[in-house]
Amino acid sequence: MTSYNFKKPTVFDIARRMGVSHTAVSLALRDSKRVGAVRRARIKEIAREIGYYPRAAALALRSHRTGCLGILLEGTGEELVAESGFSSPLLYYFLGQCRARSLHEYVEFYQPSANGSFQPPRQLTGGVVDGMLVLGYVDAGLRPWLQGQGDRYPWVSLDEPGALAVYSATDEGVCQAVKCLVELGHRRIAYYGGPKRFTTHRLGFVGFRRAVRRFGLVVEREQWIAGFEAGEPEHAARQQSQWAQEVLGQTPRPTAIVFHGAPSGRNILMAAVGQGLSVPRDLSLIGIALAIEAQRGPPFLSTIEADFGGMVGAALDLLLGRIEGKGPKQKVVRLMPRLVQRDTVAPAATGPAGGYSNRVG
Asked: Which residues of 196-206 are buried (b: 16+ CB within 10 A; e: fewer)?
């Protein structure tokens, strides 16, 4: 019978690879300025290559810190895999940037309070992490608990309010999308968003109404500015399709629609096709969505895309500053999304012949 003896890598293994003392390695892994920046970076790189990580318990005893950052997400892991929102890319960049900065990471899923009960996140109360990013909606149970922690548990919010928060400037992104449509000759533009309890959706509505005023647009009916409520995906899809059918059946009808979320855009597109309209010849579509979802199949949706990597980087900078006691206690960072034109935007009434429709002949 074969026996295996897997030896855990140590600081001595790194020291031999680098040709330095094990003391220098230990100092570098603790970010001591007694070791030059270039050498520190190389030592950390070798540590990752051979799979060496300092024992969290030992680090905590020496520095009162774990060297670990957390991220808190609403819901469950299964929901994250299945959803079409922004949680997945933000989590992806969090994991990548933690590793690039030689930080350990911890992921926890938070279930909103039910029946008045509240359970604070284990990663903070258990001392697992030095601080965390809070991703997405913060309910009435979690928010006051977080606000009551002060400097004890530093945290930064992503796309939701907080003393330290990083947002995608969704409102300005929507304004830029409307400006693009106006420059293409569109004057009848509608907007379809989502649940306003989420800040990113509220900002979408704010941005569209601001654009209506800024560009002197006339909204024919209040129904042209609408959105779906939170609920099961199937129910939301029915809401989106029904709204699109009603609005596109009106005279006059919108020549362009700005939407929030790729599923909304696809459902609106299918409703348009069902009414014999061609996209983008008869109707232009542009919306807040992920690039990967916008390109799942033709026609490829034109999109307003958040700078996820920049958001996570800014949030980590704020969090590490608070952990070190050097950063501001209150600061809001807003990053501009980018506008990407693909297949679903064209000049009003003069777009390319053909397009995607069910017309015969």
From this structure: eebbbbbbbbb
